[in-house]
Amino acid sequence: MGEVRIIGGRWKRSRLPVPDAPGLRPTSDRIRETLFNWLGQTLDGWRVLDAFAGSGALGFEAASRGAAEAVLVERDAKLAAGLRASAQRLQAATITVHAADALAWMRAAPRGAFDLILLDPPFADDLFDRALAAAAPLLAGGGLLYVESPREVAPPAGFTRWREGRAGAVYYQLLRREDNPAP
User: Fold this and answer.
1) What is the arithmetic mean of pLDDT over 96-112?
2) Of the candidates 68, 118, 124, which has an alpha carbon nearest to the alpha carbon of residue 96?
3) What is the pLDDT of residues 127-181, one digit of tens each?
4) Of 119, 106, 62, which is closest to residue 87 (Cα–Cα)?
5) Measured distance CA(106)–CA(33) in Å, rounded
6) One-letter-per-residue 3-state SS of the chain
7) How big is the CA angle at 74 (ends 108 and 144), to the nearest 5 degrees?
8) CA distance to 14, 77, 113, 143, 180, per residue, from 116 (Å)
9) Which of 39, 135, 143, 157 places its Cα 20 to 30 Å from the Cα of 111?
10) Contact 15, 8 (CB under 8 A)
11) Strand 114-119 relative to strand 47-51: parallel, antiparallel, unpaired?
12) Sheet holding 69-74, edge to edge
């Protein structure tokens, strides 16, 4: 079992366990640091969805930086239980964990419920286009979509790439609605 460290905010330097699980690939410190530099160091009041949560590194990082609500969705029941244990250990009252299939969960979630959606689906499953399509309606006005993938992914209709980068074999991009001003 490995671990990742929260890099900023209230729980800076806190460690999250990363079990050995097929396809589990936590977002690297370097990419998380870049993402949260793009977003700003505080996310006070934001509502965040970390679909395909895995290690929870992205969702916990958002909550650590002041998100009012961080919803983590993970289909693997053991990983979801580990996320709940980490939330309890950190006394993270703003984190909610759902053991569910992220695509199905997003299809049933209320429209406009989130300010930021973090998408890092298992690379081998090639869920990127379906995940983006399911996530887009869940964003509130001015909302942002983050996606991590092994290849460049086209933004869904109505979105443009606001920021993008590459670290090794990982592409990451932050998308925004074309009709909304940059945050």
Assistant:
1) 96
2) 68
3) 888 999 999 999 998 899 999 998 888 888 889 899 999 998 899 999 997 765 4
4) 62
5) 26
6) CEEEECCCCCCCCCEEEECCCCCCCCCCHHHHHHHHHHHCCCCCCCEEEEECCCCCHHHHHHHHCCCCEEEEEECCHHHHHHHHHHHHHCCCCCEEEEECCHHHHHHHCCCCCEEEEEECCCHHHCCHHHHHHHHHHHEEEEEEEEEEECCCCCCCCCEEEEEEEEECCEEEEEEEECCCCCC
7) 65
8) 23, 24, 9, 6, 14
9) 39
10) no
11) parallel
12) 95-99, 69-74, 47-51, 114-119, 139-149, 170-177, 159-167
Place of tokens 């969702």: 59
Among 110, 103, 158, 109, smallest CA distance to 128 is for: 103
